[in-house]
Design goal:
The chain is an alpha/beta fold. The protein folds into two domains: 20-47 and 275-363, Aspartate Aminotransferase, domain 1 (Alpha-Beta Complex), CATH 3.90.1150.10; 50-272, Type I PLP-dependent aspartate aminotransferase-like (Major domain) (Aspartate Aminotransferase, domain 2, 3-Layer(aba) Sandwich), CATH 3.40.640. Helix content is 40%, strand content 15%. The protein contains 14 helices and 13 strands. The chain has helices at 4-8, 10-13, 24-31, 50-59, 72-82, 94-106, 122-129, 147-153, 176-185, 244-253, 261-270, 274-298, 317-326, 349-363; strands at residues 37-38, 89-92, 112-117, 134-138, 158-164, 191-195, 220-225, 238-241, 301-303, 309-313, 329-330, 332-333, 341-345. A seven-stranded mixed beta sheet has the order 2-8-7-6-5-3-4, sandwiched between helices. A four-stranded antiparallel beta sheet has the order 9-10-13-12, covered by helices on one side. The chain has a two-stranded parallel sheet with strand order 1-11. Helix 9 (176-185) links the parallel strand 5 (158-164) and strand 6. Helix 4 (50-59) packs antiparallel against helix 11 and helix 12 packs parallel to helix 14 (349-363). Bound molecules: pyridoxal-5'-phosphate.
Length: 365
């Protein structure tokens, strides 16, 4: 008899897998719906740049070849665009893979990770899967990251601190001064994994311009992704900007062909299509304003966001989530941790209207 749950070990046996937003097709089948909109995974509602789709079609005949394991073209494109040395970039299959690589490379037996809570659940899922744990440091009642509390949680043995700004699911951010003070206090052998998955959407004047910070703070690893503002979630491509030796160590651990050919080409084009990015950001700003106004009319409290989603207090999060599903709108229920909230991604103007109409029917009747 082979008992795989025993073979996997206790850390895997008790692991609760990540629950992605419900796929559109699944909901259509479940409720016999013709039209379903998905505002659950903070994807780009406008899709990728048309330049990207054109280049992908041209590249399709090449896919019998392995990709460039070093992602040379993409490395050059990102290096040039962000003015970062090419050897201080490391690419992964989404920033999720960067999170995993960081832990596989640097977290040794007995060491663990820390993050403010609530935040991106993947930090703790990957930590646990790696045989370690992520300790959560609570945020303030209004979800502001409490950096004093976080510093207090950085005890010996904490190898990585995950810090998402803007944070998922709250949309809150850490301002430049506070982040600097935090970096000055944190020990140099604690890696600060600064997760900037949503940085392109920020408009707060004191949002930190962290790109050059690796010079002063070599323990900062900046993680970014093409999944959100650049609309490439389905291709799985993200990266980090870090100290040269940090990238070199992680490079030893990563799979030789971890990022695929289509993703590399798409990302190299996307990062240079500023016009498309402007469209995406404009849509987000306008959608955010509209949703704020409508939430206020409905008396729904929300957390002001710096990202492409809004955390809204709807009273009974589960009930509203389920009623929205029946009306063909997929949002994110926040679970036991935030039971009165839903998180809604900002969509196209039409999607935002459909969502609000459905929400109004549920709340007002
Ligand atoms: C804060 C945060 N970091 C990282 C990711 C992962 O993005 P990806 O693996 O698609 O790059 C997400 C996705 O939702 C996120 O919200």
């Amino acid at each position: 008899m082979t008992d795989y749950s025993k073979l996997a070990g206790g850390n895997i046996g008790s692991l609760v897998p990540y629950k992605p937003g419900k796929p559109i097709e699944e909901l259509k089948r479940e409720f016999g719906l013709e039209r379903v909109i998905k505002l659950a995974s903070n994807e780009n509602p406008l899709g990728p740049s048309p330049k990207v789709t054109g280049a992908l079609i041209e590249t399709l005949p090449e896919i019998s070849r392995y990709p460039d394991g070093d992602a040379y073209m993409l490395r050059q494109a990102v290096s040039k665009k962000l003015n970062v040395p090419p050897d201080q970039l490391l690419f992964g299959a989404g920033s999720n893979e960067i999170i995993e690589l960081l832990l596989r490379t640097f977290v040794k037996p007995g060491e663990y990770t820390v993050s403010p809570s609530p935040s991106f659940s993947v930090y703790s899922i990957i930590s646990q899967a790696m045989g370690t744990r992520c300790e959560w440091a609570p945020t303030s009642p209004t979800f502001e990251t409490d950096l004093d509390r976080l510093i207090a949680a950085v005890k010996p043995g904490v190898r990585v601190v995950f810090l998402a700004s803007p944070n998922n699911p709250t949309g809150r951010y850490i301002n430049s001064n506070d982040l600097k003070t935090f970096m000055q206090k944190v020990p140099g052998d604690t890696i600060i994994a600064m997760d900037e998955a949503y940085c392109e959407f920020t408009d707060a004047p004191d949002y930190p311009e962290t790109l050059g910070w690796y010079k002063e703070y070599p323990n900062m690893v900046l993680m970014r992704t093409f999944s959100k503002a650049y609309g490439l979630a389905g291709l799985r491509i993200g990266y980090c900007i870090a100290d040269k030796m940090c990238c070199e160590m992680m490079n030893r651990v990563r799979q030789p062909f971890n990022t695929n050919m289509l993703a590399q080409i798409a990302a190299a084009i996307a990062i240079n299509d500023e016009e498309w990015l402007k469209n995406v950001l404009r849509n987000n700003t306008e959608g955010k304003k509209y949703l704020y106004e409508e939430f206020e009319k409905l008396g729904i409290k929300y957390i002001p966001t710096q990202a492409n989603f809004i955390l809204a207090d709807v009273g009974d999060g589960m009930a509203v989530f389920e009623k929205l599903l029946q009306k063909g709108v997929i949002v994110r229920f926040m679970g036991k941790e935030l039971p009165s909230y839903i998180r809604v991604s900002i969509g196209t103007p039409e999607e935002n209207k459909i969502f609000l109409k459905a929400l109004k029917e549920i709340i007002v009747g």
